[in-house]
Amino acid sequence: MKFIRVNMTDKSVQNEEVPEKYLGLGGRGLTSIMINHEVPGTCDPLGPENLLIFAPGSLSGTPLVNTSRISVGAKSPFTGTIKESNAGGSIAADLGRLGITAVIVEGKPEENDLSFLKIDAKGHAQLIAANDYRGMRTYECVASIKKEYGQNQTVMCIGPAGEQLMPIASIQATDVDGRPCRAAGRGGLGAVMGAKGLKALIVDPSGKDADAIADPDAFKEAGKAFARVIKADHMAGQVMPAFGTAALVAPVNSLGAFPCFNARKGVMEGWEKISGEAMAEIIKKRGGKTTHMGCSQCIIHCSNEYVDDQGKYITSSLEYETIWASGGMTGIDDLDTIARFDFMCDDIGIDTMNAGVGIAIAMDSGYRSFGDKEALLEMLEEIAKGSEIGKVFGRGPEAVGRHFNNDHVPAVKGQSIAAYDPRGMKGNGVTFATSPMGADHTAGNVVGEYLTNKLDPLAKKGQAAASKNLQVAMAAVDCTGLCFMAATVLENPEAGIAFLKAINAKFGTDFGPDAIPEMGIRVLKAEREFNKKAGFTAKDDRLPRFFYEEPLSPHNTVFDIGDDELDAVHSWS
Amino acid sequence: MKFIRVNMTDKSVQNEEVPEKYLGLGGRGLTSIMINHEVPGTCDPLGPENLLIFAPGSLSGTPLVNTSRISVGAKSPFTGTIKESNAGGSIAADLGRLGITAVIVEGKPEENDLSFLKIDAKGHAQLIAANDYRGMRTYECVASIKKEYGQNQTVMCIGPAGEQLMPIASIQATDVDGRPCRAAGRGGLGAVMGAKGLKALIVDPSGKDADAIADPDAFKEAGKAFARVIKADHMAGQVMPAFGTAALVAPVNSLGAFPCFNARKGVMEGWEKISGEAMAEIIKKRGGKTTHMGCSQCIIHCSNEYVDDQGKYITSSLEYETIWASGGMTGIDDLDTIARFDFMCDDIGIDTMNAGVGIAIAMDSGYRSFGDKEALLEMLEEIAKGSEIGKVFGRGPEAVGRHFNNDHVPAVKGQSIAAYDPRGMKGNGVTFATSPMGADHTAGNVVGEYLTNKLDPLAKKGQAAASKNLQVAMAAVDCTGLCFMAATVLENPEAGIAFLKAINAKFGTDFGPDAIPEMGIRVLKAEREFNKKAGFTAKDDRLPRFFYEEPLSPHNTVFDIGDDELDAVHSWS
């Protein structure tokens, strides 16, 4: 276990033992607790005082299935809050196998120079000048890196948006096939990477220097049990491999909670054309892959490869939130356009959700028309170029709303909501309002409760409690590297026990079941503490006004969870 | 005494008695206390719940000299705080003479239609459709109104920027010569007027229906004494008529506190070319007016008429803050360009300070070069057109900084500082940080203390106290309609006593000298209370980081007043 600490001001790279206070932490737990300790709350997110921390989950690199999420943390230039954004692919497992607990990037170059941080198979890290890569989009960047340093290299990099310090910039990670199609999309961490002058983190995946597993036999047994539950689970074992996350288009529309036409409606006419079922049919007909392994250790294979009518790769993986942001919100019911949008966002290095929602707001303001497919892709080119209007889109939904004097901006703390309207799925509204990271689709997504009929999405009662429980659970899960799809099975007692056993077997600990929510609460508390230092108050934990005032068809409901209930989500007795 | 209440949703106009709780209030006292009572803190400043209140000072319309300021109040779409912005000209006196305590504009039109509110010589108000005036700049708007309704009409109106809801939009008032060159510039209240669909407030100045003065003889005597002190005062009686407020260019530069080149320096080389002395010389040579009566009741005549080399009117009045914002901040040392900038800002209806500072930030970011005269005026045309880059400028300094990724933005709560660098005049820094209205040049300007050697501008000690006293005094003065220039003599005991006597004689009261600071404190408390409801905390009462970190030449000092001292400014024992 070691930290690699990189100072971009003086270009020094140091290895250090993990300080005692951070021992046992991984993923979001490590990034959030460390940022809360070491980053001044009021600092400029793009200045030298901010840290950009790459931390694989605490179980990443072990043989446990679906533990390939890497957390990237920093003070966000987009929301102004603390932010953790996580991505799949193979880099978490690669770093974990090298025994690297975190890569911590500090300082800021005096000159506007670009570097790579390259970690070799022995875990040695060095900074390499990368000014030749300036302005390069991510697919070309990765291809060039592979040509220069070896085809097997794993990469996490920024595109032109990150270099231009745009608040909606993502950090893109390569999938197991070496394409930069996995995104740490939210919170504008690509802009922090750009401000640090770091174009890419490159990891040689062939090394192995991880700490031994304390009890290998117990670990193996727990891992098998966990994998068995996943395989037997209807959602994780059958629906996800067949349709991917796009499977959600149909049920969320049927519940009337699919925010479309800039969240002016809850059901999209023509949703069938952009559903997971439609997507699977198109991909099958054209010879693409309806199911695909995107991340190391994955046994769910929710990923896909979307191809054009010549069978040529367009993008991987086309996901629910992207289909919503660039399809539902904009009124575009054409999956080919949506797939190209997804590819371009990955290539330019921007979050699909904040980009799509920003464009939807512009359409809603009359700048372009809803349903205009060409406009959608043209706007992305403007962002890449950094034209005047492109910079506005690059700043995200609130900036677009202000630019066009349109206050119908479905965002919290600047960040767009995800594909669940708070008026039609009220628990998701609670999460959007109260998550320490702004509106977020993974911070405590209540959709599973609705789809399994555990909770009425329109009831007032029980929403805040459901959100709170899920925020705690996801904060804990995000420490381990486990992906959201696999985490959905943790409610199954067999899976929960197996997961806890795996943790104990890995670290030689003897945690009881309470340790998991306790970890989640510890993380959330650190995040809230940071936000308080950054100036956030209860008043920031609210949804935009229109969710309280404009009824959403077809149920004609508004968001009506009281401020006291929202404020209680983060009170801990 | 009456209120005219205008509802823009249903186009109703009603007269009402002044409710008891607002009796005796005028100007800023009335706008701020009423907004705090009646406007929800978290409302959308451009939505129907915001009120736009026009309130002449409590002494406006009386024979007391220099009482012609009208306060305009609302929740600001620019700072998000409560805002009072006041303007000179003749409208305050005209409304006061009609016995109109306030015009309160509420609601918001369903359709995007424009109206005039016209008040006739009997004080009757009616809404008139004004869609033909859409897009009209203010000079043309006023000329057309005078043609349509009579040459004597007094007007307060918005230009294209206000119609476009731009956060730096001003409301322009006609001076005694009928030109819309007096601005309620700060806080973007022009955008609130635009959102209300109100193109202009038109007042017939020939009416008279004010309440009688309770003790006319005492009033007359007090008024004479007050006028005598003004005439005898060196600054108000001699410097202001000779050079106007531009007289400050020389001393503020010599103290090293003239923020120039986007506040990167404290002394501008070539300041002599844009000084009050240089301006007076140019105007004299060309046959303009170095001194001029801009406002009703004025005996100071700090105004001027700047003309071109053919003797043709360019603008009135060229003021210190405008010369600084469009000259010092941009490195442009040409008064002709600055005068054209001033005219264009008045004509488009934008605040000269926020416009100039935004352009300076763009220049500092490399978008144009410092000193580029053509670029300065071109940018204004972009704002008027509402082009993409124009909209960015129209949103003010922070938006420009974000657009160009430049965090060297001399603004507090979004609003640009005024022409006194907080590192070279620390008390002004305290006012910028802690005023409930964002950085502001009239909210508690400490410059007089420095010019009269009462306080060392670089000392740490005494700055917070000086700012506090002046914030209280100005909050009280802003209730009465007295202008800032006349208020500077209030420290003279003879003037202070005469002013108090005039108030008592007007209202038949028997206030002691404490009543004035008590009024100021009451107003500030109401403003702070509103801001708290709007979500503001002590963390918002800070200057931008660079003022604390980047030493300002020539004294190489930073702003070093502690947070505890800032927080104590608004604590009242």
- Catalogue the unreliable spans of chain A: none
Radius of gyration of chain A: 22 Å
Which architecture of the domain at 2-203 in chain A per CATH?
Answer: 4-Layer Sandwich
| Secondary-structure class of chain A | alpha+beta
Task: Give a count of the beta strands of chain A, DSSP E runs of length 2 or more.
Answer: 17
Q: Count the helices of chain A. How many?
A: 23
Strand coverage percent of chain A:
5-15%
- Biggest chain-to-chain interface with counts: A-B, 23 and 23 residues
Please report the distance between the alpha carbons of the first and last residues of chain A. 34 Å
Q: Record the strand order, biggest sheet of chain A.
A: 2-1-6-3-4-5
Oligomer: homodimer
What integer is the average pLDDT of chain A?
A: 96
CATH homologous superfamily identity of the domain at 2-203 in chain A? Aldehyde ferredoxin oxidoreductase, N-terminal domain
CATH class of the domain at 2-203 in chain A: Alpha Beta
What best-fitting shape of chain A do the alpha-carbon axes yield? Answer: globular
CATH topology assignment of the domain at 2-203 in chain A: Aldehyde Ferredoxin Oxidoreductase,  A, domain 1
User: What is the helical fraction of chain A, as a range of percent?
Assistant: 25-40%
